[in-house]
């Protein structure tokens, strides 16, 4: 009976995802990046149904009552998260909220299926991240007059956090970028990514002169040099992409852009020459089959998993994703593809793309250049992270060691992802309220006249 239900669920999961994507397209508007209450309710029903289906499978396969309690806690968190966001931030984008929560329930299902302890820890990080970042739009609304004035504070805070890792951090998978406290580990560079975006936006807010570009580039170079020294090349690459995109948006100067690419090519060559773990990843990317017993083992088994899943998957809990090293973080995409299928994985990519496009539209509709820059930086950071992990796990590009936002296991990654979305929501709320106030002033003047 359980096997029959698991097999049927493969098609039900896909059907619900198609409906979710359809409601995304249907509810997409150019004006305010919003969806109406009816469409939002439809998406949330899909989230609850998918979540329930997945945990029924996990429970019946494990017969572990702790799975039931974990499921109920997750439902409570999702309900409260939606309720309070709708109550306190009426101008927030329901589409963003629904999309990130859909990714979260996929994460809950696959991680709990892989390991109950891992799934429980991920949920704890979700609650902590959701509660803390819930305050971000409120802070941006009430401290808007100061957030763009403290550019050097951003630079100093980011520098201190990165340098602290050099003294107190521990090396994991070849990179010294983790601070470990008890059972939990934290990656400060994830938080510094957002601090760095605020720094660049504040530097270019009113001054795009060559002198200011050189000054901002020097700070960026210091950040990237520290990350390269710590062998955290994945995050270093994200910093570079963020800066190049924000620099081009601020100056519209292609010379800066192509000059940066040339410099990155030189640095990449140096990194390949001096870092053995980078050489291993490149060799695994070029020919994982020739190194299947060593550095190619991870990517080869990831590809095996994707192939085994076919178009519709083998069913949740019926695959063998645990044979893939670091499956809960670096290689979560092959695990999902094996059990949910390639069609489902493509739908997951479309949902992630919708988050990226919503972020860009929020940026485009911004009246403030400062917030527009931040929105572009966050959107590009999110998109490149998605591209790098999916591209790395499918052999499109070498593995970078990054995580899939809202899906992979990792507390610091999840917290920074929530923080990015919270900043986008804050930007949208600020912009909408400014439009409402300006419209109100215009209407008042018309009435007076």
In short:
The protein has 449 residues and is mainly alpha-helical.
Strand content: under 5%
Give the H and E element order. Answer: HHHHHHHHEEEHHHHHHHHHH
Structural class by secondary-structure content: mainly alpha
Low-confidence stretches: 442-449
Description:
The chain has 449 residues and is mainly α. The protein has 2 domains: 2-134 and 278-448, no CATH class; 146-274. It contains 18 helices and 3 strands. It has a 3-stranded antiparallel β-sheet, covered by helices on one side. Strand 1 and strand 2 (175-181) form a beta hairpin. Helix 8 packs antiparallel against helix 9 (188-203) and helix 14 runs parallel beside helix 15 (332-340).
List the helices and strands and how they pair.
Layout: H1 2-27, H2 37-62, H3 65-88, H4 94-114, H5 116-133, H6 136-142, H7 144-147, H8 151-168, E1 170-172, E2 175-181, E3 184-186, H9 188-203, H10 210-229, H11 233-251, H12 254-274, H13 276-286, H14 297-309, H15 332-340, H16 342-364, H17 369-393, H18 411-448
Antiparallel strand pairs: 1-2, 2-3
Helix pairs in contact: 1-2, 1-16, 2-3, 2-4, 3-4, 3-5, 4-5, 4-16, 5-18, 6-18, 8-9, 8-10, 9-10, 9-11, 9-17, 9-18, 10-11, 11-12, 11-17, 12-13, 14-15, 15-16, 16-17, 17-18
